[in-house]
Backbone:
């Protein structure tokens, strides 16, 4: 299992607080007008370098129109060829496509993702190109949940989901004490995107691309420990029979950052940070 904690610091500092954390997450914003796709490749190489001793997922958002017009083809192939010598780097094309200011509909995302993935894998067939979803839009009534068809057809090397428990006066999303099997957004995504593969006996790599908790420290700590206990039961059930339908997640990346929104309530403090250190240590045993 790949385990990490996303922070706005260097990997060594994160490992000082969370010794089991080895995998990180880096983000490249959409290109400004006039910027060439080659800049994204430059950014990927720069952002990935500090993570050589563990691993990292790098996200970027190519313009669907530019991808369709072939403007990214040569750069994608170069990225793929580079990944052959840097297999610890995973690529996320257009993370959280279902929501936010850069959101796409399912058909548009499927087209940009499939072409981008094919071009990257033309550079190296072993490249890991991930679809990373936004759990909020997979809740009942969410944008993706209402029209899941095109999203279901996306073929990826890894399926990740960004999942947050907690709410404030702005996001109004989910209660702070929800663990994964209780979380309507995560379960909506899992049931539509991951479970059909597992039920068909198709092993898939899936997991948490961002896992955040907001709320009082006592509630967060208790929620993280309940989630850890539940995940342990998932691993134990799979170990008992090795049935694909019970395959556990392969990735768990905790969120410990104010992020682009500068929301410091997502930063772990006190016992919640201790609980996350315990969780990551427990699941690092499954690497």
Residues:
């Amino acid at each position: 299992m790949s385990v990490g904690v996303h922070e706005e610091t260097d990997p060594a500092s994160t490992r000082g607080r969370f010794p089991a954390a080895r995998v990180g997450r880096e983000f490249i914003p959409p290109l400004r007008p006039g910027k060439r796709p080659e800049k994204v490749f430059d950014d990927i190489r720069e952002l990935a370098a500090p993570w050589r001793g563990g691993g990292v997922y790098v996200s970027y958002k190519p313009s669907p129109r530019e991808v369709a017009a072939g403007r990214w083809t040569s750069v994608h192939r170069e990225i793929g060829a580079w990944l052959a010598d840097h297999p610890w780097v995973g690529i996320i094309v257009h993370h959280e496509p279902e929501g936010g200011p850069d959101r796409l509909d399912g058909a548009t995302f499927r087209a940009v993702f499939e072409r981008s993935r094919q071009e990257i894998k033309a550079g190296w067939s072993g490249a890991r190109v991930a679809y990373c979803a936004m759990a909020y839009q997979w809740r009942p009534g969410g944008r993706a949940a209402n029209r899941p068809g095109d999203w279901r057809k996306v073929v990826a090397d890894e399926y990740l989901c960004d999942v947050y428990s907690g709410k404030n006066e702005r996001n109004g999303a989910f209660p702070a004490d929800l663990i994964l099997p209780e979380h309507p957004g995560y379960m909506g995504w899992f049931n539509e995107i991951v479970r059909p593969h597992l039920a068909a006996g198709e092993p898939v790599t899936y997991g948490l691309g961002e896992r955040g908790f907001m709320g009082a420290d006592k509630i967060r700590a208790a929620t993280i420990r309940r989630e850890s206990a539940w995940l342990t039961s998932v691993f134990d059930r799979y170990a008992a029979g090795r049935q694909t339908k019970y395959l556990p997640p392969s990735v768990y990346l905790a969120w410990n950052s104010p992020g682009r929104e500068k929301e410091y309530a997502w930063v772990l403090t006190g016992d919640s940070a201790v609980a996350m250190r315990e969780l990551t240590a427990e699941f690092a045993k499954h690497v």
Residues 217-241 form the longest helix (25 residues).
